[in-house]
Amino acid sequence: YHFINENKSWTEAQLYCKDKNHTDLATVSSMADMNRLRQHLGNRSAWIGLYREANGNRMWQWSQPDVKFNESQKDEWYTNEPNDVETENCGTLWTDKKWADLSCNRKQPFICYNSLNWTDAQSFCRDRHTDLISGPEQMEKLDVVKTDALVLKSEGGFVFIGLFRDAWQWNDGSSFSFRFWNLQYDDEKNNSSCAMMNEGGRWSSENCSVEHPFICYDHVILIKENMTWEEALYYCRHHHHDLVTITNLNEQIWVQEKTKNASSPFVTGLRYTCTLGFWFWVSDEVVHYKNWASPEQVNECDMSGAMQTGGEH
Predict the structure, then answer these.
(1) Domain named C-type lectin: which ranges (predicted)?
(2) CA–CA gap between residue 298 and residue 82 (Å, rounded)
(3) HSE-up of residue 17 (Cα within 13 Å, Cβ side)
(4) Which of 94, 246, 264, 308 gives 20 to 30 Å between its CA and that of 184?
């Protein structure tokens, strides 16, 4: 990330980032990214790459950015839900572990636990745990007795989960659902279609024409040409920096986003050495994080690493 201490409008800031050989305004995919950004921000405010189009379609998403919402999960909703009675943009667990939409400002128990509105609940979970529970797979692992007891105690039998919808999107096309709004965030605020980061790292919406400092970032670039692994390595080192290295889940998620537009498997900077008998990254990083397909990797001479463009990548 690169903090640019010049006041520009959101559009001017985006153009600056692209013109100065950065990738774009900062995209934030997780709390790990947030913590890195906070180190740069200090007590200042700055633009990030989140915006919404006028009259944009609201889409359901899970709070955890690596859990994708599947529109085919219609059977999970309770009868006649979601009904959007009063601009209901947050998801709850209701009768028989079915889902219902609810106003994000309602105070309900949540999983994790306690009684807060949805934004406060999300912050509570992220500060003390990982996130609000997200996705059917995580819900199937819930303790039925404890969950039912929580539902019975709550007003109207609702318990918040990590499901929400909004019209905001990242300007680089990423589909990350990570949001870190301030606790007084108003989604209906007029003429505020661009997001900025405030002191403490929380986000607020702002008129895009107001001038602020901003944060650029450099990131993964997809080259839409088919090459051998060695040709790809030399191309990246000549035109950019190096073939991509993936050392943790956060980096894995970033690279997965870029593979969406690839027409063939995505080459990585992973190579097997016959002499020493192990896999290594060309950046000299040790291979700790692994995401091999099954059956596992073949340990033979002249083998290189590539990421599948679909499935579990």
Answers:
(1) 1-113, 112-217, 212-301
(2) 48
(3) 29
(4) 94
**126 found inside a domain:** yes
Percentage of the chain modeled with pLDDT above 70: 89
Closest to 70 (Cα-Cα) out of 82, 78, 62: 62
Q: Tell me the C-alpha distance between 90 and 61, whole Å.
A: 10
The average pLDDT across 168-183 equals 83
12-21, 50-59, 123-132, 281-290: which range is least confident on average?
A: 50-59
Domain boundary among 166, 185, 203: 166
| 32 and 65 belong to one structural domain | no
CATH number for position 284: 3.10.100.10
157 and 68 in one domain?
A: yes
How high does pLDDT run on average in the chain? 82
**Torsion sign across C-alpha atoms 240, 243, 245, 246:** positive
Domain that holds residue 279: 229-307
- The DSSP element (H or E) to which 34 belongs, if any, is helix 31-41
Average pLDDT over residues 75-80: 86
Judge if 276 and 238 occupy the same domain.
yes
115: left (phi over 0), alpha (psi -120 to 50) or beta: beta
Domain count of the chain? 3
Specify whether the CB–CB gap between 167 and 53 falls below 8 A. Answer: yes
- Whether 49 and 27 have beta carbons less than 8 Å apart is answered as yes
CB atoms within 10 A of CB 262: 16
Top-confidence residue, 202 or 184: 202
Residue position matching structure tokens 């955890």: 64
Helices and strands of the chain, counted as H and E runs? 7, 16
Instruction: Provide the percentage of residues in the chain whose pLDDT is more than 90.
Output: 4
